[in-house]
Specification:
The protein has a single domain, classed as Cytochrome Bc1 Complex, Chain D, domain 2 (Orthogonal Bundle). The longest helix is centred in the first third of the chain and has 20 residues. The radius of gyration is 19 Å and the shape is globular. Helix 2 packs antiparallel against helix 5 and helix 3 crosses helix 5. It contains 5 helices and 2 strands.
Amino acid sequence: MPGHRLTPFVALFSLLLPFTASAGPREDLLAGYADAARAADAAFTTFSAARGEKLYRDRHAGGKPDTPSCTSCHADNPRQSGRTLTGKAIDPVAVSVSPSRYTEPAKVEKWFKRNCREVLGRECTATEKGDWITWMISQ
C-alpha cells in the first residue's frame, strides 16, 4: 500500500519540523528587531555590520562622560575581554569567543538598556541593536 511507504518520511519530517521552524534564539531576536525596525522606519531593509561597528567604536556625547563609547568598557577588539570602570572583567562581546552571547532575550535587553543609556544617553533603537548583534556575529 502506498501510504505505508510514506510513513518513515512523515515521521522524519515531523522530527525535523521543530528545527526548521526557528533558526535559533539569536536569529529570533534579530527577526524581532527587524520587525520593530520596519515598524519604526518603512525604509528599513536590513541590518548592517558596518553600522554596528561604527556604533561600537564611535564616541558619543549623550551619555555619561566616563563612558563616551562602547570601548570605554569593552575592549577595542570585541574578541577580547573588557573591564568595567570599577575593574570587573567583562567577557568578550564577539560571538566567536562568547557563543552564548545574544541568545537570552531578557538578558540582551537588560544590557542594551543599561549600556545604551550610559553611552548614548538614551535607549538604543531596534536598528542599532540589530546592527550591533550583526557585527558581533561577524566577529
